[in-house]
Amino acid sequence: MKKTMLLLLTVLLYSCGESETKEPPIRLADYQQSHSSENISETTTPEAGEATEEATTASAATVVEVSIEGTDQMTFNKKELRVPAGSTVKLTLTHTGTMPATAMGHNFVLLKKGTDVAAFAMTAINFADNEYIPEGTDKVIAKTKIIGGGESVTIEFKAPAPGTYTFICSFPGHFSMMKGSFIVE
Ligand code: CU
User: What's the 3-state SS for 9-77?
Assistant: First the structure.
């Protein structure tokens, strides 16, 4: 009796061990391999697009991800953003501070060339109910809503014609500190 139990146990253990070691390692390796090559192509594609496809038509449908941060110190972490001409820009604004939107709200507003930035910002102050964007303005290429500490917002827009544009935060009093260049090249 003891012997058959033991035998049964070893058979069970054996078959169990066999089924565990037979296939899965190969599958895991395959999976990791395909998975890591996926990651590589994901991270290198945008760079390759920027560097080599500039002069070709291949960049027409390129989506370029851009990120910028606003702080409790009333600053953006970047003074300059660059995107390739013809791309679709996916821009994420993150507020890395903790202050509420009512006290230290930030947005990202990309202005058309030739806009009087100070005049725009002074007008924007009167439009708290419209995310500090003057109602009916024709000066804005792209904008986010106002966010507070810990929040983030993503917008997508078509890159304007090649050139240098100004972006600001239009929250009252912020534009002189929170301003930068958006370069389409
Ligand atoms: Cu701001």
Answer: HHHHHHHHHHHHHHCHHHHHHHHHHHHHHHHHHHHHHHHHHHHHCCCCHHHHHCEEEEEEEECCCCCEC
Give the number of other Cβ atoms within 10 Å of residue 67's Cβ: 14
Ligand 1 centroid to Cα of residue 169, in Å, is 5
- Closest by CA to 170, choosing from 76, 99, 86, is 76
Q: Please give all residues whose CB falls under 5 A of ion ligand 1, grouped by chain where several chains appear.
A: 106, 169, 171, 174, 178
Q: What is the pTM of this model?
A: 0.68
Angle made by CA atoms 8, 12, 15, in degrees to the nearest 5: 135
Q: For residues 137 and 168, is the Cβ–Cβ distance under 8 A?
A: no
Q: What is the pLDDT of residues 32-58, one digit of tens each?
A: 444 444 443 443 444 444 444 444 444
pLDDT score recorded for residue 170: 98
pLDDT grade for 114, boundaries at 50, 70 and 90: very high
